[in-house]
Structure formats: C-alpha cells, structure tokens
Design goal:
The complex is a heterodimer of chains A (312) and B (276).
Chain A (H helix, E strand, L loop, with lengths): L15 H7 L1 H28 L17 H8 L1 H33 L4 H12 L6 H11 L6 H8 L16 H7 L7 H12 L3 H9 L4 H12 L1 H17 L2 H6 L11 H10 L4 H25 L9
Helix pairs in contact in A: 2-15, 3-15, 4-9, 4-12, 12-15, 14-15
Chain B lengths: L1 H33 L4 H6 L11 H41 L5 H11 L4 H14 L7 H23 L4 H9 L4 H12 L1 H17 L2 H6 L8 H4 L3 H5 L4 H11 L1 H9 L1 H12 L3
The chains are: A mainly alpha (312), B mainly alpha (276).
C-alpha cells in the first residue's frame, strides 16, 4: 500500500537514546526480573566457571588460579570411576522408569470408554503428588528397614525369608534399592504428558486402522508410538538431566555408602564443597557434569527425530 | 457379540489399572496405619491394625514440625507472590511493549532455563554467604524466585501476547498510564495463568531440600523438608508413629493446594514440562 512507503518526517525519527528513553517504562517492568536473574543465576554460572580453575578453600588465605589441576585431579579420582558407573545405571533406570509404567497406565486409562472413569482414575494417579518428595524418600527408608520395614515383613509373610536383606546396608543391594524407590513408578509428570499426548491423537486414525484390520498391538506400535515421539523425546531429555544431577535421595538414604556403592558425581561435588571445603574442586565437578548433560541433551535432541505432525 | 467382547476387555483394563493403583497407594496405606501405632504395637504384631489408635502420635509429630511447616508455607508463599508479580510485569512488557534490545533480552532469559541446577548450587551458596544472606528468610525467597523467573516470563509473555490491542487502545484513549493498563486490565485477565504459575512454583519451592539444608542453620528458620530428616537428632523422637504422622502432616499444605486448584495443578505440571 502506498501509505507504507511514506517517509517518516525528521521530527518523528528517534535516535537510539530516544528509543531507550521512550521505552523507560518497559525497562522498569523488566528490571526486578532482570536483577534477580543476574544476581542469582548469571553470576553463579560465571563465577562457578571461574572457581573451577582455582583452588579456593576457606582454610587458605588466598585463592590461586590453578588452571586445569582440578580437572586433572578429577580424572585421577578413583571414587569418581565408581560414581560414573553408578550414575549411568541410574540414568538408564530413570529413563526406563519414566517411559514404561507411565505409558502403560496412560494407555490403559486411554482405552477405557467412560470419560468419567478416565477423569477419576487420572485424578487418583495424580493424588500421590501431595506427598513431599522428601517424605516419600523417608518413607521408603522405613520400608527398607531390616526389622520392621514393609518389604522384609512382606517377604517373610509370603515365605520368602531368604530374600530378606538389609537393603540399604548391603553394598550389593543399596543402589538397586535406591533405584527401586517409588515402585510402581507411575511418575505423575510423564503420566500426564503421555496421557495428554494420547488424547490428542485424532480418532480418525484409529478408525482407519480398525477398518484396515489392525490389531491392538499394531495400533500401538504404528500410531501411538510415532505420534508420541515428541513427548517421549522430551521425557528422555528430562530423565537424563534428572538422573545426572539428582543426588539428595542418595544423600538422605545412604550418604553414598555403604563403602562407595551408591556414590555419584553430583554427590561427590556436594561432599567436596560441604565436607572437605574444596570449593574449587567442587565447581570443577559441577562444570564437568554440566558439560556431560549439555552433550547428552544435544545428542538426544538431534538423534531422536521429531514427532510426526498430523495436519488436519 | 461385539458388545460383550468389548465389555470384557474394559473389565480387564479396569482390573489392571486398579491393581497398579493399589500398588501406588500401598506405601501410603502403610504410612497411615503405622502413624497410629506405637513401637510396642509395631514390634508385637506388624500386620495388626492399631489397637488402640494412638492419636498422641499426631500431637507429637505436629509439635515437632509445626514451626518448620509454617516456615515452609510462608517462605514459599512469599517467593511465589514476588515471582508472579515480577514475571507478570516482565512478560507483559515483552509481549506488548516495544523497546531496544527486547528480543536479545527475551532470548537471554529463555537461555537461562537451560542451566542445570547442579551447576549453580555451589557458586550460588558461595554468593549468598558473601552477601551475608545465610540464615535469613531472603536466602530462600530470592533464589527460589530467581530460579523460576525465566519460566514465569515465558508463561506470562505467551499469555499477554494473546490479548487484543484494542482493549489497551481503549484504555489509552481514556488516559490510562501504562502502569494502570497493566494493573487494571492485564492482571485481572491473566489470573488463570498467574495462578498456574503460582501453583507450579509453590509446589517446587515447598519441596526443596538441598538448598535450605545448606543455607539455613538455625532450627527456628528451617523448613519442613529438612526438619523431617531430623526427627531423631532434632526432636529426640525415636518412635516411628510420630515420625509417620509428621510425614503425613507435611503433605497437608500441598493437599489443600491440590484440592483448591487441581486443574491449575495439572495444567501447571504439563506446562512445566515445556520448560525443557
């Protein structure tokens, strides 16, 4: 249109400073958010990066720049090797836990015919969220109690006394016990995401498949899974991040023991800082963890192809 | 014939679902029943129902965690209010204003969401220590707020962008300032999204364990998540009953939040997933 090309009169043009002044209210609007984030997120990120290359320890008077010494120490740390093996187990288990049972329950509920039943069942599966996470962990510590814990009592009750263990006290069972927490692993967030994904699949696809004579298993493999790929990819990324950086459940349940059977790098970082006061070394571990998470996230995002988009 | 076959399938589905549901609630049944027992009852007969039901356990448990529970609620609430206010303001500005560096600033905020908490835990601790915030309420309120700010701005901007400009034009014609437009027009319209943000954040901050553990030393200021782990050392309670009662009591604020805003809860959880 001709009016779009009408030049702006000189008097209406603004310099950069003019624009900034004109938008001063906007800057005011974003100022509190910006400040809080600069102080509590940006500063720690950069200073953490800096400290990783120092030997900061409150015992010493000065902070020295030690270059890659912390990272060299990392590679020579024997416990770290065990920690890496443990955390990889945990990551794989977390991905499996977040994908299998929630998907199973979502599918079961999805195939129920009564919407009212679906609504109430979905609500019931979400209710356990009201238990604070730490309370759940403490509860499971009780469940694992060798004498009066639910698990051993149950095993004894059905005649499997030989299966009873000191679950958290035995180096062989400690890590599996920690992984087992939360059984049956109907984790709420994956469950809701997957159920939501299933419910957004157009009914026509199922009708067409039934007309073509597809069995339930075929419908699951060829319709549900491909169309859920976006949600699955998201859950894989979230699970990997959660698996690598989560450590407070281990801290509370076993403290990394017995011996080093449940130690993970994130927990080592915690101990390095708050037991040994080796803040520089702790930051180096944090930074290394960050790189690993970043790498895996990038690999995940590019390797798992995007979900199939259905255009109506 | 087909109708019968379908019905059988439905019953099988339901049975499976109910079985899994039972397994989910089994630890919770264990928790509730044992919260009414004393140690003698537990050791005498594990599987028996409490006889008598020891209500005193709840009095003991409540006495132990009462202060920290109130701390959790008030600190969580404070950071939620601040977050909703500041993220709302910023989201509004990013959605409806024009100003230099708007795009780069917005994308910088989004980039923050990629930072895993493990990276900032130690440096943030060192920062608040040097700022002298340790053992104050602000050491919890401010980092909690900052941690979800980017997500909050994302949510709010998304919502505010959907409002029609005519509404605001009408307001401007009537002589309203930008701040008035925000307060009287934008905020009331955005209450659902603000409540959603608030619930997600309140839930997360209430559940936080590690940060209060390392930044709060005084028992008076401690939050309930940490207090629950000190039943032995902190309160000298070695009975299991009061401990279990404490675990249940700590769920009450979340239960209330859940009952009040279940759909916001669920909507917020799935919105939270879009964070990544």
């Amino acid at each position: 249109m001709a009016s779009d090309v009408r030049p702006i009169p000189r008097s209406r043009q603004r310099s950069l400073w003019g624009e900034i002044w004109a938008g001063r209210v906007s800057y005011l609007f974003i100022l509190p958010a910006l400040l809080s984030v600069l102080i509590f997120m940006v500063e720690p990120t950069f200073s953490g990066f800096y400290y990783a290359f120092t030997d900061w320890n409150p015992g010493f008077q000065e902070v020295h720049f030690v270059g890659l010494d912390n990272f060299a120490a990392l590679f020579q740390d024997a416990t770290l090797g065990t920690g890496v093996r443990n955390v990889l187990e945990i990551v794989v288990a977390t991905v499996l836990k977040n994908l299998t049972v929630p998907l199973l329950v979502a599918e079961l509920i999805f195939h129920l015919r009564s919407p009212r039943l679906q609504y109430w069942l979905r609500t019931l599966f979400v209710v356990p969220m009201v238990m604070p996470a730490i309370a759940v962990i403490l509860l499971w510590i009780q469940i694992y109690d060798p004498n009066i814990g639910l698990l051993n009592q149950l095993l004894g009750g059905i005649g499997l006394q030989s299966w009873q263990h000191a679950w958290l006290g035995d180096p062989l069972t400690a890590l599996p016990a920690i992984i087992f927490v939360g059984f049956p692993w109907v984790h709420v967030l994956p469950f809701l995401i997957l159920l939501g994904g299933l419910m957004s699949i157009p009914q026509e696809l199922y009708d067409a498949a039934t007309v073509d004579g597809a069995r339930a298993s075929a419908r699951f493999l060829l319709i549900d899974l491909p169309l859920l790929l976006g949600q699955i990819k998201l859950l894989v990324v979230l699970s990997v991040i959660e698996g690598f950086q989560g450590f407070y459940n281990i801290l509370v349940m076993t403290g990394g023991g017995p011996f080093t059977s449940t130690i993970v790098p994130a927990l080592e970082m915690y101990f390095a800082a708050f037991q040994d006061s080796k803040y520089g070394y702790a930051c180096a571990i944090a930074f290394a963890l960050f790189l690993v998470i970043l790498l895996i996230t990038i690999v995940n995002m590019t390797y798992l192809k995007s979900g199939v988009e259905y255009e109506a | 014939m087909k109708r019968q076959k379908g019905a059988v399938g439905q019953i099988v589905l339901l049975a499976l679902v109910l079985l899994i549901l039972f397994l989910v609630f089994l630890p919770i049944f264990y928790l509730v029943i044992f919260s009414f027992k004393n140690n003698a009852q537990i050791y005498a007969n594990f599987w028996a129902l409490p006889d008598p039901w020891i209500l005193r356990n709840y009095a003991l448990g409540w006495g132990a965690i009462q202060k920290s529970l109130l701390n959790s609620i008030s600190l969580s609430l404070a950071s939620t209010v601040l977050l909703v206010l500041f993220a709302g303001m910023a989201g509004y500005a990013f959605a409806r204003h024009r100003f230099p560096a708007k795009e780069p600033l917005y994308y910088s905020f989004l980039a923050l969401m990629m930072i895993p908490t493990v990276l900032t835990l130690i440096p943030r601790y060192l920062l608040v220590k040097s700022l002298g915030l340790v053992d104050t309420p602000w050491v919890l309120i401010l980092p909690w707020m900052a941690g979800n700010m980017a997500f909050g701005i994302l949510l709010c901007r998304g919502f505010f962008a959907t409002l029609s400009e005519e509404l605001f034009e009408a307001g401007r014609i009537d002589g309203a300032t930008e701040i008035q437009l925000f307060g009287y027009l934008a905020i009331p319209l955005s209450l659902p999204i603000l409540v959603t943000l608030g619930i997600v954040h309140a839930f997360q901050s209430y559940n936080d364990y590690i940060w209060p553990l390392i930044t709060i030393n005084s028992n008076d200021l401690q939050v309930v998540t940490v207090a629950l782990t000190t039943f032995n050392s902190g309160y000298g309670i070695i009975d299991y009953g009061p401990r279990f009662a404490g675990y249940l009591l700590s769920a009450i604020p979340l239960l209330i939040m859940f009952l009040f805003g279940m759909r916001y809860f669920i909507r917020g959880l799935t919105a939270g997933a879009l964070k990544a």
